[in-house]
């Protein structure tokens, strides 16, 4: 089955090279992820692949057809969830699906038959007559997914399908995508959520400034680009009793223990007697002997290493420093490859 | 690819036309009444008020003279409003076009659908005025029914011109320029409210280039029960405007949206 082949794709806006020679293909039945910071060129890649933006160089085949020359035809085999919802505000949920089906040349009868199943699939059973402006953000996103399925596509393009959704809605979308993959559909997904990519993508590419800087299965990418273990070291919040570490990584926690079971001294005083210091100072002065690589952001030091035991022993004897030890994940790779600076 | 390559639309414009029709159907009655009220007030106000002062204009009562002008004027307005404000909402604000372009519909189909839709809606308001005019006894023969295709053709021409403006517009405010600089002056020199012959020669020459005056020259004789002189010329001018302006509007839209 023909999916998407992109070869040497390049695109500039004015003097900015937005895509700089991308080459990739989707294998039938796989979920392929495009990851990259804001402005990396993910949406532009999708637009080129759909024939909505004319590339400056490169060849594209979508569903076996050359794009942009036969893009109109090729799009009839594709379902698209755009980055921004663009449901028709003048219509109900069901009318949105009906009218969208007509754009594919589907007879009303066929679409009417599909509507209840599509709404059910999107968790919107019973909402057929709901006006779009009465739907929550998550419902709109799910309705957009249902709309993308109205033509029973072989290939799905999903541009950040779960951005802005609550965990419940995100999990529902993930479940649905797995079902669609199980039905044999091929999925091209962009996302900023590394856990989402790790969970769903068979293969993925990390892109930055219009170039691929890593490609492969999530495991391959992690193995190829980063040390296997991470120890995050935090300074104790000024004088507060030790508690679980803050931050998004907490769910991946393998072990987390306060370095000091007693009430630690406030950090400001700690420097004075030499026994306590901030994580940043610790990283600057002592981390290098234990870790292959250390990155400091604010009050957290990320230590990347292959052998963690010596560092953990060292930290166990330190006052005022807490830590979190975990395996390296895609987010670490992403941050290593694309840097920690804001893009926009 | 050159944005101004020839249009190559397909029949996929029909589902897009139907989308706009379905939205309109939900608000049909207020929409038709709104399109009817404004021109009727003008026509009756000017026709009876001013008409009382004038014995005859162009050989008929002023009200009868004004009837054809009003039909064309309101066709122009309806087509222009739809192609400007409504199409701009769909293109820029609601992102309806973006959604449609993700389906197997080309921009060529989409712009054609907007063109035909705006002309269809304009025809409805032209037809509604025609019906009122007929009910007032201002129409002399069934020949007046030929005004309906004229209205549709004029609708295409004005919609296509409007779509050019929409494809260029950064925001709604931009449309004011089009009305102030083009639509209003065109209305005044196209024989809607008074015969073009009243104008200085230079303005008469300018008038003969404008689509509205050609629409009026077709519609007025038809409403008065006569075959329009030089009908082929007027039809050709209106069709020429429609085709050229559509081509240009599509090129500008491609440049704006498919870059
Ligand atoms: N129509 C356009 N005109 C000019 N520049 C554009 C246009 N579209 C995109 N760009 C620029 O191209 C770059 C890539 O944009 P793109 O939307 O593809 O990024 P993205 O990876 O999808 O980002 P995000 O994660 O924020 O959605 C950005 O710098 C953007 O400003
Ligand atoms: Mg994007």
UniProtKB/TrEMBL annotation, chain A:
* Primary location class: membrane
UniProt subcellular location: Cell membrane
Key word Transferase present: no
Mark the transmembrane ranges: none
Q: Where do the segments described as Disordered lie?
A: 235-274
The organism's superkingdom is given as: Bacteria
Q: Name one GO molecular function term.
A: ATP binding
Q: Where is the ABC transporter domain?
A: 4-234
Q: What keywords appear on the UniProt entry?
A: ATP-binding, Cell membrane, Membrane, Nodulation, Nucleotide-binding, Translocase, Transport
Gene Ontology CC annotation, any one: plasma membrane
Which Pfam families has this protein been placed in? Answer: ABC_tran
| Signal peptide range in chain numbering | none
Q: Is Nucleus a UniProt keyword of this protein?
A: no
Name the protein family: Belongs to the ABC transporter superfamily.
For this entry, the protein name equals Nodulation factor ABC transporter ATP-binding protein NodI
Organism the protein comes from: Candidatus Desulfobacillus denitrificans
UniProtKB/TrEMBL annotation, chain B:
Q: What are the entry keywords? A: Cell inner membrane, Cell membrane, Membrane, Nodulation, Transmembrane, Transmembrane helix, Transport
List the subcellular locations: Cell inner membrane
* Cross-referenced PROSITE patterns: ABC_TM2
| Family the UniProt entry places it in | Belongs to the ABC-2 integral membrane protein family. Lipooligosaccharide exporter (TC 3.A.1.102) subfamily.
Assembly, per entry: The complex is composed of two ATP-binding proteins (NodI) and two transmembrane proteins (NodJ).
Stated membrane topology is: Multi-pass membrane protein
Segments forming domain ABC transmembrane type-2? 30-256
What's one GO BP annotation on this UniProt entry?
Answer: oligosaccharide transport
Enumerate the InterPro entries for this protein.
Answer: ABC2_TM, ABC2_TM_bact-type, ABC_2_transport, ABC_transptNodJ, Nod_factor_ABC_transporter
Q: What is this protein called?
A: Transport permease protein
Q: What does this protein do?
A: Part of the ABC transporter complex NodIJ involved in the export of the nodulation factors (Nod factors), the bacterial signal molecules that induce symbiosis and subsequent nodulation induction. Nod factors are LCO (lipo-chitin oligosaccharide), a modified beta-1,4-linked N-acetylglucosamine oligosaccharide. This subunit encodes the transporter.
Q: Which GO terms describe its molecular function?
A: ABC-type transporter activity
The secretion signal range is: none
Membrane-crossing segments per the record: 27-50, 62-85, 122-140, 146-168, 175-196, 231-253
Q: Which GO terms describe its cellular component?
A: ATP-binding cassette (ABC) transporter complex
What single Pfam family name could you report for this chain, choosing any that match? Answer: ABC2_membrane
**Tree of life domain:** Bacteria
């Amino acid at each position: 089955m023909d999916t998407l082949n992109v070869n040497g794709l390049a695109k500039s806006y004015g003097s900015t090279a937005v895509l700089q020679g991308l080459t990739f293909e989707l294998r039938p039945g796989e979920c392929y992820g495009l990851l990259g910071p804001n402005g990396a060129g993910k949406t532009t890649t999708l637009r080129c692949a759909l024939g909505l933006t004319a590339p400056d160089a490169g060849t594209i085949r979508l569903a076996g057809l050359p794009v942009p020359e036969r893009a109109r035809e090729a799009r009839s085999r594709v379902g698209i969830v755009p980055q921004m919802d663009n449901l028709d505000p003048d219509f109900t949920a069901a009318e949105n699906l009906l009218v969208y089906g007509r754009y594919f040349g589907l007879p009303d009868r066929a679409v009417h038959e599909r509507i209840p199943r599509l709404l059910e699939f999107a968790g919107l059973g019973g909402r057929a007559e709901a006006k779009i402006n009465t739907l929550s953000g998550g419902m709109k996103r799910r309705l957009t997914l249902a709309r993308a399925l109205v033509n029973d596509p072989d290939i799905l393009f999903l541009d950040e399908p779960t951005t802005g959704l609550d965990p419940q809605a995100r999990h529902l979308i993930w479940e649905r995508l797995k079902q669609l993959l199980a039905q044999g559909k091929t999925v091209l997904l962009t996302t900023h959520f590394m856990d989402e990519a790790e969970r769903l993508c068979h293969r993925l590419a990390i892109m930055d400034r219009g170039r691929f800087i890593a490609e492969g299965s999530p495991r391959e990418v992690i193995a190829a680009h980063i040390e296997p273990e991470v120890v995050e070291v935090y300074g104790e919040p000024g004088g507060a009793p030790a508690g679980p570490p803050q931050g998004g990584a907490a769910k991946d926690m393998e072990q987390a223990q306060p370095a000091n079971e007693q009430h630690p001294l406030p950090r400001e005083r700690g420097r004075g007697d030499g026994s306590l210091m901030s994580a940043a100072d610790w990283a600057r002065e002592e981390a290098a002997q234990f870790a292959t690589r250390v990155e400091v952001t604010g009050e957290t030091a990320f230590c990347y290493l292959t052998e963690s035991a010596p560092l953990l022993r060292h930290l166990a004897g330190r006052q005022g420093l807490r830590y979190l030890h975990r395996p390296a994940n895609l987010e670490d790779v992403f941050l290593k490859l694309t840097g920690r600076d804001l893009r926009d | 690819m050159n944005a101004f390559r020839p249009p190559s639309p397909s029949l996929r414009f029909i589902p897009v036309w139907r989308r706009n029709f379905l939205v309109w159907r939900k608000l049909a009655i207020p929409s038709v009444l709104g399109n009817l009220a404004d021109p009727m007030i003008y026509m009756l106000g000017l026709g009876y008020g001013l008409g009382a002062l004038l014995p005859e204009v162009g050989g008929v009562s002023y009200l009868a003279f004004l009837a054809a002008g009003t039909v064309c004027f309101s066709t122009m307005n309806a087509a222009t409003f739809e192609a400007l404000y409504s199409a701009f909402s769909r293109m820029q604000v609601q992102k309806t076009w973006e959604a449609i372009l993700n389906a197997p519909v080309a921009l060529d189909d989409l712009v054609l659908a907007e063109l035909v839709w705006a002309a269809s809606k304009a025809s409805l308001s032209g037809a509604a005025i025609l019906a009122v005019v007929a009910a007032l006894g201002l129409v002399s023969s069934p020949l007046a029914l030929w005004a309906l295709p004229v209205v549709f053709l004029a609708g295409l021409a004005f919609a296509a011109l409007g779509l050019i403006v929409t494809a260029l517009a950064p925001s709604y405010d931009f449309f004011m320029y089009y009305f102030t600089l083009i639509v209003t002056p065109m209305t005044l020199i196209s024989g809607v409210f008074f015969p073009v012959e009243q104008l200085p020669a230079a303005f008469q020459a300018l008038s003969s280039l404008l689509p509205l005056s050609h629409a009026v020259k077709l519609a007025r004789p038809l409403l008065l029960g006569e075959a329009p002189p030089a009908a082929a010329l007027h039809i050709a001018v209106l069709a020429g405007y429609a085709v050229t302006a559509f081509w240009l509007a599509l090129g500008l839209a491609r440049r704006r949206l498919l870059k």
